[in-house]
Amino acid sequence: MPLPTGNQSGNLVRGRLLQPLCAVLAAATVAGGLVTGPTAGWRAVVPMMVAVLGALAVAGRRDRVPIVPTAVVVAVASALGTLFGDPPVQRQSTGLVTLLEIGATLLLVCLVARYAGARAAVVLCAVLGVLASTVILRLQVPPTLLEAAAQCTFFALGAVAACAVGGYLRGLEGRRLRSVHEARRHQRLQLARDLHDFVAHDVSAIVVLAQAAQVVGGDHPEKVMPILSQIETAGQQALRSMDRTVHMLDDGAGTAAPAAGEGKTRAYGLPDIADVVDRFRSAGRSEVRLDMDLTPEQIAQVPREVASTAHRIVVEALTNIRRHAAATPLVSVSVTLGPEVAEPVLTVSVTNSPPSITEPGGLLGDGGRRGGGTGLTGLAERVGALGGSLEYGGHGDGGWRVTAVLPPR
Q: From 3, 40, 228, 304, which residue has the greatest number of CB atoms within 10 Å?
């Protein structure tokens, strides 16, 4: 059973705990207001009830209660209560009602700072903060203006604190949303890289076979049908590669491929390298040698991220050979595990000999030098992130070699 996400957990808590609690408090507020109205004065009780009910409505049913209109109604009720309230008197019930209104207004300030739009939040927080700091004047007006200002300033500190709390929570949510956006962007880029790196390997094979069919079609038409069959196989493999890569979004764990006998997916690994080499061999004229004599126990020692990166290196190296050195007579692929028992080092090497001068490189080799994808530079960054190293460059007299050393993590 999948675990609920952060938003789902928040909605669950709000639906099962917060909303019933707010409903109980709202009912208690109405009942208490009706009881204390005759003694505390309705001009003090009504603004209190409006403020408490408004704050509870926004807190419990924020998805259905518009926060800005609710805050405006509370502000108007509070302002009217301060301007046209009963003459200031020292009553215990009136003082309690006033403190409840101040607390509800400060809660609403926090909610406005957290959820309202930026411009509306600034205006409403300022207005509600002023009203919350002046509600106390309903009980007693100080003898001097300076004392009244000091008293209101003291209560305004509560509004500042409520606004700061709401703003802080707003900032946390903004950072969370930016992190989610960046993670999704990274996932899309990773998907694009996977589509390029894996599909380009099969598409380049299709191009090579199509060019071969054009060359032999005129003189040896009987050889075209086997080539067309290979093109069909390579095209189907390209489609499967795209399907596997898209499944990565469902698993969220690197490049994926279908698991045997299951509808779920698994990561590309060392066993898939043999299939890549076989398809490269069948689509070209080069002799391909694979040195990967690893036991299942040794393969199990290699972490999934390292094995997936090794597979990616072989795919990229063979694709580059097909593009830029299609006439090379010999390609060697080596995947070896070091003799260390505790932390065996995985070494991946792909080497091609100099292209034969007696055979043309083919149209892809001549005109296929184009940019795109992650390339060896992107793979070098990926290998470096795993703590390994990737080196590539000329080898011998016109050959090329790609070597990666991948230590375990």
A: 40
Going by pLDDT thresholds of 50, 70 and 90, the confidence category of residue 279 is confident
Axis-axis angle for helices 19-40, 92-115 (nearest 10): 150
E strand segments, 183-270 = 256-258, 265-267
Domain ranges of the chain: 6-141, 179-406
**Mean of the per-residue pLDDT values of the chain:** 78
DSSP state of 353: P
Helix residue ranges per DSSP H, 41-117: 42-60, 67-83, 92-115
Which CATH homologous superfamily contains domain 179-406? Histidine kinase-like ATPase, C-terminal domain (3.30.565.10)
What is the identity of the amino acid at 174?
Answer: G
What is the H or E stretch that residue 363 is in? helix 362-367
Which of 128, 42, 40, 134 is CA-nearest to residue 82?
134
Q: Which two tokens stand for residue 182?
A: 């960046």
Vertex 383, ends 378 and 384: CA angle to 5°?
A: 95
Interatomic CA distance for residues 142 and 140, integer angstroms:
6
Classify burial at 324, counting beta carbons within 10 Å of its beta carbon; exposed 0-12, middle 13-18, buried 19 or more: middle
Residue 278's contacts (CB-CB under 8 Å, 6 or more residues apart) are none
The dihedral sign for the CA sequence 157, 158, 164, 167:
negative
Residues 6 or more apart in contact with residue 68 via CB below 8 angstroms: 112, 116, 117, 120, 124
E strands present in 165-324: 256-258, 265-267, 287-291
Q: Is 144 left (phi over 0), alpha (psi -120 to 50) or beta?
A: beta
CA distance 273 to 239: 18
pLDDT tens readout for residues 280-303: 887 777 888 999 888 888 888 888
Residues 6 and 176: their CA atoms lie apart, in Å, by: 11
CA distances 269 to 22, 76, 204, 288, 347, Å, are: 54, 67, 22, 20, 14
DSSP 261: T
